[in-house]
Amino acid sequence: xxxxxxxxxFAGVVAAGAxxxxxxxxxxxxxxxxxxxxxxxxxxxxxxxxYSIETIQDNIKRFEKANPAIQIKLADHSWFDYHxxxxxxxxxxxxxxxxxxxxHWLREWVAAGWLEPIDERCPQLAQYKGEWAPYxxxxxxxxxxxxxxxxxxxxVIFIYNDQMVKQAGFSGPxxxxxxxxxxxxxxxxxxxxQYPINIPMKKDDPWxxxxxxxxxxxxxxxxxxxxxxxxxxEPGSQAEKVLQFLADARNKxxxxxxxxxxxxxxxxxxxxxxxxxxxxxxxxxxxxxxxxGQHKQRGNFKMALMPGSTHSTVGFVxxxxxxxxxxxxxxxxxxxxxxxxxxxxxKTGGQYKVMKRWALEKGLGFANLPLYDDPQVQQAINKWGDxxxxxxxxxxxxxxxxxxxxxxxxDIYAREQIHAAILGRSTPKQxxxxxxxxxxxxxxxxxx
Amino acid sequence: xxxxTATRPAKRFRRSxxxxxxTILPVLALVSLFTLFxxxxxxxxxxxxxxxxxxxxxxxxxxxxxREVISSDTFGVAVRNTLVFALLTVPTVTALGLGVxxxxxxxxxxxxxxxxxxxxxxxxxxxxxGIMWRLLLHGNFGSLNGLLMQLxxxxxxxxxxxxxxxxxxxxxxxxxxxxxPLPTILFLAGLQTITPEILEAAWLxxxxxxxxxxxxxxxxxxxxxxxxLVYETMIAVSVFDLVYVLTGGGPGTSTTLFSWYAYTATxxxxxxxxxxxxxxxxxxxxxxxxxxxxxxxxxxxxxx
Lengths: 448, 304
Hints:
The complex is a heterodimer of chains A (448) and B (304).
Chain A: H1 2-20, E1 42-49, H2 53-66, E2 70-77, H3 82-91, E3 98-102, H4 103-111, E4 115-116, H5 123-126, H6 134-139, E5 141-142, E6 145-146, E7 148-161, H7 162-167, H8 177-189, H9 207-218, H10 238-251, H11 265-273, E8 279-283, H12 285-292, E9 301-304, E10 313-323, H13 324-329, H14 331-345, H15 353-362, H16 375-384, H17 387-395, E11 397-398, H18 407-423, H19 428-445
Parallel strand pairs in A: 1-2, 1-3, 10-11
Antiparallel strand pairs in A: 3-10, 4-10, 5-6, 7-8, 7-9, 7-10
Helix pairs in contact in A: 9-10, 10-18, 11-12, 15-16, 18-19
Chain B: H1 2-46, H2 64-71, H3 73-104, H4 111-123, H5 126-137, H6 143-150, H7 164-179, H8 181-191, H9 196-204, H10 209-220, H11 222-238, H12 241-246, H13 258-268, H14 272-303
């Protein structure tokens, strides 16, 4: 009897606990514009990854001064953990109002119901579309709906140390992967650099796959076709050649740093700046840091078109997105978020003030093409880069292929296989086939 | 009258029962909320297809999640890596802890300071320890490489964390450094309960130092030894923070342990069903290990 009572009691506790699991999913309203008479006000949660926080905080102060009814609570997280932390926030009901997002996460986050389209809710933002670079507009649009305004848009570029190239006896940067190998071998033999090549390939760095994509694009290759089917695993594909190049560079000719598999973007920038390497592939804003920052080799770095037959590369966009949090709070929060996004990603007083500031102070690229005609921006870029070459590379830039709701999950697996290929633990062909098999598995899971 | 007398103890029992349940109910509810509820919720998740990018289709799939993770290529890798990691670290931590405890038991001058120094690694948060070891072991600017270069032991920097053959050893080394203080303290406490007369008697019987240790000290340390073995095995199987900070499970999958696999399934692949299934499999494995340990120790006691 006593035992029965005990069991009944515990069953009741379990049932009570189970009730908590019935999460009432609020929000998810239709994409109606906020009501007319509602004022933009409230406190907004703004989540970013950790880059130049003091600049963001200063921009926020200026926004708050101009909009005293709106307060901003800023939270930042490491870029390496950003995706996982945002997944936790959104799933636990702690969705931010405005957050950084990226083209490669857009489909995943929209499929999960975490982001809201802004066409109807923030019509004033959609007007900027016509001034954006095509790869940027494409990166923020899904099923003809716009999901954000640019924080920055940039290119993955090939960077080389001009002084080291000349020291090795070459007149200019390599134009193909074969020339890259040739120049790197020469540098190693002459003792200019033990490992002339270093490309950040740290496993938990979301950049890694973008660098591989850019090398494939550079040689005229593709990763997926228009139907989002893998083509990287086809015999003799550019992807196979790129992985073979990276594997040989590490294991045979030993011209690439074996530590690159544990190095992320900041590590490689430091190592390049110290003169340990001559060639790398990085996001373009790093060229500004290398030439203007406190580095032994500052001023010696130049950009070159991505080595390969077509010199194409990856163009990407990181953007301000409207999170579920704002919609759940109501129209006042939505209007406040739209005002905030307009200040940061749009025009104030007829100028892209925040975007221009990022370009002038940090060398961040921008989606808004009119900024290229701004003499101040041109002058700033030419201090560390080459505006003409940058525009040429931008014309050859392509959006990452295969962006689907399961691309993020596939990316994690792909990085493991890329490592295996570079380490020589599997052949490039085997690695790419495994990546294709995982793609198909995820596609079936998602009913694709 | 007899009936009235009989009901009084029953009433008292009911009142006392109500009082008992009433006082412990709030605590029980809290404990249930934070232990029982997550357990049940995870169990339910493990039998459903719960993929965050498919939020409107979460059917019951029975044991399909378990089947999928067990048949995945990463599962075999994770199990093998976890076994290797446990085999590397558990005996090392145990032996090192016992060795240091034996030294500390000599009661030298500055004993208190030595104990504090020994405890230092354990007082450092795991993430901080991981960051510290990552800087030490970095293949490009790590101070370990710098030291070895200066001593002439190596002629070029070693990529400790990006060489698959070395990365596991590097993570194990960081783990052993962080974990050995606890066994040291447990063994030291055990050693201090051994009366000196027993060891003196063994010495008088002309037992060597090794014989005294093997036949007198070690049997008397059975209780702390069991605790250390069980605890350190649990920690080795479930270690996460160091892997997260040092290698992210890489290079490739060379340091992908079971706990890391469960984490990536949940937070990177956004597959809560498979993540929950992996967590239950890990729990089951740990329970089996604990039962085996306890049986082994009990068998030894019985044969002695």
